[in-house]
Amino acid sequence: MPAKGKHRRPKSRSIARGFAAAGTGGAALALPLVGAAGAHAAPAATAAAPAVAPQTPSAVQAQPAAAPAAAPAPAVYTVVPGDCLSTIAADRGVEGGWQQLYADNREAVGSDPSLIHPGLRLSLGAPGAAGAAAPAPAEKPAAKPAGKPAAAPGKKSPAPAAAAAAGRRAAKAAADRQAAAPKAPAPQAAAPVAAGSFVAPVGGGVSTAYKMSGAMWSSGYHTGVDFVAASGTQVRAVGAGTVVSAGWGGAYGNEVVIRHADGKYSQYAHLSQLSVTAGQSVTAGQGIGLSGSTGNSTGPHLHFEIRTGQSYGSDIDPLAYLRSKGVTI
Q1: What pTM was estimated for this model as a whole?
Q2: Structural domains in the chain, sorted by start
């Protein structure tokens, strides 16, 4: 018969009690185990992850600022026979007109804006007048496309059509600009004049009389008469004759000299444009050029002389001569 006594139950290990408690008391004892495991695992994971320096996308990296573009040099125009500051400023679109053109070239022209001569170089805009352009901000480089898709078989590339359309647009724009550009005044048709008769060279009145004295004239007096005539006014031959000279005449600027049947010569000076050449026959009232302010001139007008010879110094009263030919003036 077995002896009576108490049997000692062997002590279970702590981990077995832990699981037993987990079985009876829920996860109360299991949670510390998981938490402990997590607490120990987190540092390990942190240590295992290598530190990576933040990368800056190449597209947003600072780019070197573009160097400021140099200011364009002013255009230079070379004076040719027939030019005056007003016509140059109008043809070249100088802002401020001939006054600004003269101010920009005062050292080259001198104290008299009318004294320009062929070969003189004029600046069409003062250097630095527009100011230095501010440097443009650096732009981000655009991402390059992965590649142009190949055209589908049997379909033509749209490039030729686009180029043709661009060409048509450019041609139309050029035609529109040409149509909008100011056109030079058409020469006025000369009124019918009877053979052997004379006419006035222009329709304006007299601004400076014949033989007016003054230090501005080398002879000490005015050798002709000045007629009021805006730049570009049609100038007519006062009578039929032959052109003996047509070109640059020094202080007279562009001039035309015509010999008439009675042996007298008529001279037309400071013209902006010539319409005849030496040796050409002209009729009374025929256009020979346009008025201007070339040579030694203070502004647009027509200087007109009647001479007994072709050269300077043989002048006679031009108004008396025209009146003797039946011209009312």
Answers
A1: 0.45
A2: 75-124 (3.10.350.10), 206-324 (2.70.70.10)
